[in-house]
């Protein structure tokens, strides 16, 4: 029998990912000075697709194991904060607020990992690559912001 709760977590992730589709880099981003270690543009869609699949499964695993709980609350909060980043960075062109957002996102992801660990080891482990990618994203956000004070 199909567990529809997994579909709910997947739909929530698709909704959050839609902010990235709504607020795309565009010409403004292309004109910004970026560090040499900036990942290629094609990698963002690939990486985020894989990560959002992992995020959905992780949320579903803790939901099945613990129902409404601290890890599930952190899961929901991180998803909302994640969705806000593209709007802040690309939509509003507020690299400063986007950096605050990505730091908060990092903290929420770390909080999820710690709180999910005793509930579902797999859920916690599924968030580790997400934490690594968001660490890179935070460093990139800060670097681009600092390199382009006129655009912030």
Can you describe this structure?
The structure is a single chain. With 152 residues, the protein is mainly alpha-helical. It has a single domain, classed as Up-down Bundle (Ferritin), CATH 1.20.1260.100. Helix content is 80%, strand content 0%. It has helices at residues 4-22, 26-31, 41-66, 70-91, 95-116, 121-126, 128-147. Helix 1 (4-22) packs parallel to helix 4. It starts with a helix and ends in a 5-residue tail after the last helix.
Short description:
With 152 residues, the protein is mostly helical. It is built from seven helices and no strands. Helices cover 80% and strands 0% of the residues.
Globular, elongated, flat, extended or rod-shaped: what is the shape?
elongated
Number of beta strands: 0
CATH superfamily: TspO/MBR protein
What is the third-level CATH name, the topology?
Ferritin
The level 1 CATH classification is Mainly Alpha
* Count of the domains: 1
* Secondary-structure element series: HHHHHHH
